[in-house]
Specification:
Blueprint: H1 12-23, E1 32-35, H2 42-49, E2 53-58, H3 63-75, E3 83-85, H4 93-96, E4 103-107, H5 116-129, E5 134-140, H6 149-154, E6 157-161, E7 185-192
Parallel strand pairs: 1-2, 1-4, 2-3, 4-5
Antiparallel strand pairs: 5-7, 6-7
Helix pairs in contact: 1-2
Pfam families: Methyltransf_16 (PF10294)
GO biological process, one term: regulation of gene expression
GO molecular function, one term: protein-arginine omega-N asymmetric methyltransferase activity
């Protein structure tokens, strides 16, 4: 989709995260995966096509994004993939009744700093319910002025930086975009910090 609104465009981060999933496709069959802020759902669709049990979600306040998730599933012959309205930072019946997950996906969810804590609140809630799960996320470096490090510490989360070259995503064509500006993409895996303070 070429609409550059938040959830209606395949942003470069989604392509990079999809590449990571493809590089790890042999580990995905049977894994329970939730994509948050899914929009056009490229990472979730790739995970589902690789055999994962996927649930797609986007804000319940963005019906066009939820419809975009459903359309992506239909176009990719995945009519069985559920789509849920989950709003970051909000405890809803859908969030409370969510089935166990192994992997949470989020591409370019760290877009607007005012949303960062809501995102990590939701991720923390999901990781607390699923202590062995991980949050695989890609983000675009848009400003040197923001970081999620302090929020990770506050929410007792840890992150591991994943170099793009380690899964073949450092190619210019992969994360390129016709949108103006820089497109430096980073990837990290976030999990619960251990109780010993690490």
């Amino acid at each position: 989709m070429l609409d550059s609104q938040y959830g209606m465009y395949v942003w470069p981060c989604a392509v990079v995260l999809a590449q990571y999933l493809w590089a790890h496709r042999r580990s995905l069959p049977g894994k329970r995966v939730l994509e948050i802020g899914a929009g056009v759902s490229l990472p979730g669709v790739v995970a589902a096509r690789c055999g994962a049990q996927v649930i797609l979600s986007d804000s319940e306040e963005l019906p066009r994004c939820l419809q975009s998730c459903r359309s992506s599933c239909l176009m990719n012959h995945l009519p069985h993939v559920p789509v849920l309205g989950l709003t970051w930072g909000r405890v809803s019946p859908e969030l409370l009744s969510l089935a166990p997950v192994d992997i949470i996906l989020g591409s370019d969810v760290f877009f607007d700093p005012k949303d960062f804590e809501d995102i990590l609140t939701t991720v923390y809630f999901l990781l607390e319910k699923n202590p062995h799960a991980q949050f695989w996320t890609t983000y675009q470096v848009r400003s040197a002025d923001w970081s999620v490090e302090a929020l990770l510490y506050k929410w007792k989360l840890k992150s591991i930086h994943v170099p793009l070259h380690s899964f073949g995503a450092n190619k210019e064509h992969l994360a390129s975009s016709s949108l103006p500006g820089r497109h430096t993409i980073e990837m990290m895996i976030i999990s619960l910090a251990q109780s010993d303070g690490t």
